[in-house]
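Working notes for the structural subgroup meeting. M.R. asked for a predicted model of this chain before we commit to crystallization trials. I am recording the input and output together here so anyone reviewing the notebook later can reproduce the run.

Input as submitted:
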Amino acid sequence: MCLVYSKNTKDDEKPWIMVLNKDRGWELPGGQITENEDFDVAALRELYEETGLLGTAVGYDENIIEGGVVVLIEVESTPSPEPWDSPDPSILEVGWCLEAPTRLAWEEKELEKIRDHDWSSSKTLGS
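Returned structure, recorded in token form:
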């Protein structure tokens, strides 16, 4: 799973990207790792497949969610209130969020735990 921020935001604003899965509801981009694929490469691939955006994986943490890795990704895209279509047919909509949308795929506490994570203590990447 990936937490995606824009490089083009003010310090006091930190919108993030979420995708509306047609079956599960709103969630962070992410998915399965294919055989012999590194988790940061998988996160970047999933981001592109679900949102059409390219990014840079800057950090990761294996301790935020049980049984998974969260990858912090930065994109050049400037946040906008307008949603856009996903190239993935299982994703109905992609959008920037300033607060948790309704119809979340998980508990709001889980999303807050990921968003509020102190990334300064996480491992950094240069991919």
